[in-house]
Amino acid sequence: MNVDLHSHTTASDGALSPMDLLLRAKQQGVELMAITDHDTVAGYRSVRDQWQDASMQLISGVELSCLWHRRLIHVVGLNINIDHPSLQAGLATQQQARLDRAVLIGEKLAKQGFAGGYRFAAELAGDSQIGRPHFAKFLVDCGHVSSESEAFKRYLGAGKIGDVKSSWPEMATVIQWITDSGGVAVLAHPLHYKMTATKLRGLVDDFKTQGGSALEVISGKQTKDRTQYLAQLAEQFGLMASTGSDFHRPDMPWNELGQAAILPKHCQPLWPLLSRESGVSSTPQ
Ligand code: AMP
Ligand code: MN
Ligand code: MN
Ligand code: MN
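# manganese (II) ion complex -> structure
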């Protein structure tokens, strides 16, 4: 089954509208698809009733920012009831945290001599969730850096001045919102956190203990070594395996929709729990 359980739309930092994303996913052969915008379900909400194509099942999703031992972690929630009060309250605090953080990022950049960042980023984001990619565009557009990746490397990435993370909740809290709303929690892109193997095992151990269900064993295009490593990690901790492109826009071929590698045989895939063929409830929520 062609499965893609991690993607972004214009509701957060993606380039495609929710419907354009779905059409592209279908074109790429995806059969089970989740929209997982940063800290919002608005993109999914806007298309869930319109998407009637039987060849590609759409499930609900979200990617929540949180902290584990003061490190920024992303947890994907799938098959969530988007109207559940606990999740809705959680999303409201996340969205406020994004706004508060954006003001602080703007202040930090202004101190560095780059004034006007908040206004630029807020205008660019419009109704979408504001994030560091909007500030990266500001730094590029104003000629302070030559690319968005340089903006992250110098000003916005981990440990840099624009890396303001104080307002995110603990990982256990966001897992709770997901499970309260009937969803399953997936630890997103475990190798993005640049942890030592020991630290990563600690993270995965806590994730499992706190109610997490799966590890994103495949995140976009990655080497076989990495897939094997993550597959083993999932197996060791009794977690299921998820797959997603983390698609943001068409000009990033390493995150193209529906291009994920096949999971190693010893993995327990997450999707039988999610797909309508399983008989488990997965009606649009
Ligand atoms: P935020 O959700 O506001 O904390 O921003 C994180 C997002 O920034 C990620 O989901 C990526 O889409 C993007 N991002 C992170 N690191 C980089 C990077 N080095 N270059 C470009 N975009 C990045
Ligand atoms: Mn993103
Ligand atoms: Mn992420
Ligand atoms: Mn993502």
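# post-check
The chain has a mean pLDDT of 95.
The longest strand covers residues 61-68.
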